[in-house]
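S.,

Sequence below, as promised.
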Amino acid sequence: MNRSKPRRTGRRHPLATVALIALGLVFTGGGYAAFSSSTAQAETVANSQQTIDEGEKLFQANCATCHGTGAVGTDAGPSLVGVGAAAVDFQVGTGRMPMQMSGPQAQVKPVQFTDEQTKQLAYYVASLGPGPDIPSDHLSNGGGDAANGAELFRINCAMCHNVAGAGGALTEGKYAPPLTETSGVHIYEAMVTGPQNMPVFNDLNISPEDKRDIITYLKYVQDSTPVGGFELGSLGPVAEGLFIWIFGLGAIVAITVWITAKSN
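The prediction came back faster than expected:
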């Protein structure tokens, strides 16, 4: 008895076409993503190198006289190799550099460069040696714990900057500047670079999150409205006591003299 073989119909499984299309989309999408990623990375590298090149031109034209070719330093200015982008962004971004004249410390003055030029200078110097980078918006915009920031500020900063960030005098003509208008970026950069007479607060001394809390507290102070009379620049009890001693006691003496003169 002959058994007939089953015929092949030539039909594919209904899901085979769907599977082939899905595989095609996966390979096509993966290839496009890889190509886009490599292209974006190449553009980033190119832009970074272009930024560094432009920063080098600005440095040679404006800074090399004091800091030397290649920022290795001269008798007129220190080496900048290894100071990082944050130090340059702080000094140039606050107008302290280029210095207007020699003195106990660099004075704050109108900024000489645009934001773009400042970043170009910063990343050129950063390319010469590793150092602190410009902080991210997450750390420099505040949004942390103001109460913790106030405690940290009182412990680490208030002895020079005053508890309200009003600043104060130091020795030999030096001073701690007021922080009443300083941006969060520059406050963070000052903490990690230690400009002028300020100590460096690295991440082992004060963590990045604690630095953000300090900035949050200072922003609260900057934005808060004084209540209850004339604040006298928030210089603290010494200034307020001196004011009362001079004007209050002077007024009492004047009234006493007036009463005595009238009684005679």
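The radius of gyration is 32 Å.

Coffee later?
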